[in-house]
Design brief:
The chain is of the alpha/beta class. 50% of the residues lie in helices and 11% in strands. Strands 3-2-1-4-5-6 form a six-stranded parallel sheet, sandwiched between helices. The mean pLDDT is 95.
């Protein structure tokens, strides 16, 4: 019997190593296009996404208009076609064991559906049962509880049967407001001690490696 019949996985920097290799380099490029002379470090980018979420970071720090956010997203969709991030070692075991045991695996992410599907097909040869990504209207993306509510309604899960696994604060807000447990994916934040400390304190569980999470879930 599965400890959590439904895993709710983040994608970027929980399943795949995409921030430093894909998302941040593209944002540096687009920032130079939209706001010539403006700069951002990787640490600043990480902190902005953690505390504000990507869209509000763009609005509050750089004054992006809604059209610029749309243009950024369209350009990012083209960019990621040729930039495929690598998965974290060990995450495939969790995905496969959850599916093979008859559990559900849902993705709630700020990535878009097409690249989540691409990454799962490329690296794991399986697909999530459901994906709630950046393609949704902003009011339905995490930290909104809408994805959790949809999963519960579709499969009939109680709050205790779901476990959110994520590395960033918007997911904690979503989980807290939905009343479901959350595990901090610390393997993606080993170079961010402040984020690690805060998420470890806030979340129900915290794991520094995929191996530790696998043992917790299945052993």
């Amino acid at each position: 019997m599965l400890k959590y019949p439904c895993l709710v996985l983040d994608h970027d920097d929980t399943v795949v190593q995409s921030e430093a290799t894909v998302n941040y380099p593209y944002f540096v490029y687009i920032l130079n296009q939209f706001r010539p002379g403006a700069t951002i470090t990787l640490r600043e980018y990480t902190d902005g996404c953690f505390r504000l979420g990507f869209a509000d970071m763009c609005r509050q720090w750089y004054g992006f208009t809604e059209q610029e956010l749309v243009d950024e997203y369209r350009g990012w969709q083209e960019y990621i076609v040729d930039h495929v991030p690598s998965p974290f070692p060990g995450i495939e075991n969790i995905i496969r064991r959850q599916k093979e045991a008859g559990g559900k695996l849902c993705v709630v992410s700020h990535s878009c559906i097409q690249n989540i599907i691409r990454d799962y097909e490329t690296h794991f040869g399986v697909l999530p049962d459901d994906i709630y990504g950046w393609d949704l209207p902003e009011e339905k993306r995490k930290p909104s509880t809408w994805p959790i509510e949809q999963i519960q309604a579709k499969y009939g899960f109680s709050r205790e049967q779901l476990l959110v696994v994520d590395d960033m604060k918007p997911a904690w807000e979503m989980a807290r407001n939905a009343g479901v447990p959350i595990a901090f994916a610390g393997w993606g934040r080993k170079d961010c001690p402040e984020i690690t400390e805060e998420m470890t304190r806030l979340c129900d569980y915290a794991f520094s490696s995929t191996e530790d999470l696998e043992k917790f879930l299945f052993d």
